[in-house]
């Protein structure tokens, strides 16, 4: 679903921000 894909992207984005 679109929601699942969006959630996945957000999780990746959060991980990316935490690395910085």
Q: Could you state the order of secondary-structure elements as H and E? A: H
Ends distance: 30 Å
Q: Let me know the largest β-sheet.
A: none
Assign an overall shape. rod-shaped
The number of distinct helices, counting runs of at least 4 residues, comes to 1
- Rg for CA atoms: 9 Å
Low-pLDDT stretches = none
Protein name: BHLH domain-containing protein
Organism: Nymphaea colorata (pocket water lily)
Features:
single chain; 20 residues; mainly alpha; rod-shaped
Topology:
Layout lengths: L1 H18 L1
Characterise the protein shown here.
- The chain has 20 residues and is mainly alpha-helical.
- The protein contains one helix and no strands.
- It has one helix spanning 2-19.
- The protein starts with a helix and ends with a helix.
- The model has no long low-confidence stretch (mean pLDDT 95).
- This is BHLH domain-containing protein.
- It comes from Nymphaea colorata (pocket water lily).
Task: Describe the structure concisely for a colleague.
This protein is 90% helix and 0% strand. It has 20 residues and is mainly alpha-helical. It comes from Nymphaea colorata (pocket water lily).
């Amino acid at each position: 679903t679109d929601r699942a894909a969006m959630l996945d992207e957000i999780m990746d984005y959060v991980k990316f921000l935490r690395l910085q």
